[in-house]
Amino acid sequence: MSENISDLITNSTTAPELQSIAKKVQAAERLTVEEGVLLFEKGELGFLGVLANLVRERKNKQFVYFNRNFHIEPTNICVFDCKFCSYSKLLRDKMDAWEMTEEDILEKVRSYKDIPITEVHIVGGVHPKMGLHYFAGLIKRIKEIRPELHVKAFTAVELEYMCRKAKVSYKEGLQILKDSGQDSLPGGGAEIFDEQVRKEICADKCDTKTWLEIHETAHELGMPSNATILYGHVETYAHRIDHMERLRTLQDKTGGFNTFIPLKFRNGDNQMSHIPEVSIVEDLKNYAVSRIFMDNFNHLKAYWPMIGRDTAQLSLSYGVDDMDGTIDDSTKIYSMAGAEEQSPAMSTKELVDLIKRAGRHPIERGTLYDVVTDYNDYIFEDEAAMLHP
Predict the structure, then answer these.
(1) What is the rounded distance in angstroms from the CA atom of residue 155 to the CA atom of residue 214?
(2) Distance of CA 282 to the CA centre of its chain
(3) What CATH topology corresponds to 64-387?
(4) pTM exceeding 0.85
């Protein structure tokens, strides 16, 4: 890999400004915002891949992480009207809406009683009748069923509404949820931090300042979180780098982010369907620049139900070291928007095989990247692993 970097630096066809960036990446020096934009604008995919892979292997060697998880989406009824969303329904719109009861949710958890799941991911629409204390009680009951299960729950958008309705500060609300058993936060709702773009695509939900404040507060309380970006719609490259820079700055301050997750805009059945989706080449470029620029994030995740398992496998050569999890056909947020994976589920064996075919080293992790099982030399003795995640 070092020879490849040296070739980039000395190659006469590489623009001098890109050679300078390659030298900084080789020396593990932080890129500026201007250099991040330049990578998007002038960096060819092969060039970006070499740099991103250097950073990725420096941080994570050949390891590719995944976990055994399932999703619970309590409802798709939502008080907000995001233009890019194909998933949520307003309260007055009962067509295609769902609302799980508490017992429905608990039964879902019970159904995994004998399956070695380590995480439940709870996100959904922002329902006016499902508030802070409702969810605190729900988490307590989930922990009674599976005390060891890591509960990763509620985007900053959900949390802002919960706390506002309950008339508590973000710190008080998060402490209530933590005391009830919530362990961490997902990264959803970030979209794009640029205020003008946000007004265009999701004007009525929590703003950038609030999203960052909620995650900073969670970190202060000892609750780690993830971070996302929604790319490939009306934003520019400068907007993407601005978004990453704000996250990088907060990570410098708190160190509380586990991973960065680029999420591709899908145009199926939403108010932005007239906007064409970006190409796979653009997906890979976005992963690569993210890995190069986000130097204080240890992990970069490809959410395979959104981009499909083949593109996710390709992304392992462009900075990605995390394939999310087995999912187990329990999320509709992207399948409803036209994602390749309409029934997103992979068994552990399928996921391990996919990673090995990419020449990488598969590691089952916990939510906080503790090693659960090293699958590099693991032999699956029977086909039972194909039946359950």
Answers:
(1) 9
(2) 18
(3) TIM Barrel (3.20.20)
(4) yes
Three-class SS of residue 116? Answer: coil
Distance CA 89, CA 263 (A): 21
**Distance separating alpha carbons of residues 95 and 336, to the nearest angstrom:** 14
Report H helices in the chain: 2-10, 16-26, 33-42, 45-60, 102-110, 132-145, 156-166, 170-180, 195-202, 208-220, 237-254, 280-293, 304-307, 309-315, 348-357, 384-387
Helix (H/G/I), strand (E/B), else coil: 358: coil
| List of residues 6+ apart from 125 with CB closer than 8 A | 73, 75, 76, 77, 78, 87, 88, 89
Burial of 172 (0-12, 13-18, 19+ CB in 10 A): middle
Per-residue pLDDT of the chain (389 residues; tens, 9 = 90+): 445 788 777 786 789 999 999 999 999 999 999 999 999 999 999 999 999 999 999 999 999 999 988 889 988 777 767 787 765 555 556 667 778 899 999 999 999 988 889 999 999 877 788 899 999 999 999 999 999 999 999 999 999 999 999 999 999 999 999 999 999 999 999 999 999 999 999 988 999 999 999 999 999 999 999 999 999 999 999 999 999 999 999 999 999 999 999 999 988 778 789 999 999 999 999 999 999 999 999 999 998 888 989 999 999 999 999 998 875 544 444 334 334 444 557 888 889 999 999 999 999 999 999 999 999 998 887 544 443 44
Residue ranges, CATH 3.20.20.70, the chain: 64-387
User: Distance (Å, rounded) from C-alpha 175 to C-alpha 170?
Assistant: 8
In whole angstroms, what is the distance from residue 276 CA to residue 172 CA? Answer: 42
* Helix axis angle, 208-220 to 170-180, nearest 10°: 50
Measure the CA–CA gap between 301 and 65, rounded to whole angstroms. Answer: 9
Q: Which two tokens stand for residue 258?
A: 């586990």
Query: Taking every pair of C-alpha atoms in the chain, what is the biggest distance, in angstroms?
Result: 65
Is the Cα dihedral 36, 40, 42, 44 positive or negative?
A: positive
Which pair of structure tokens corresponds to residue 354? 């996919």
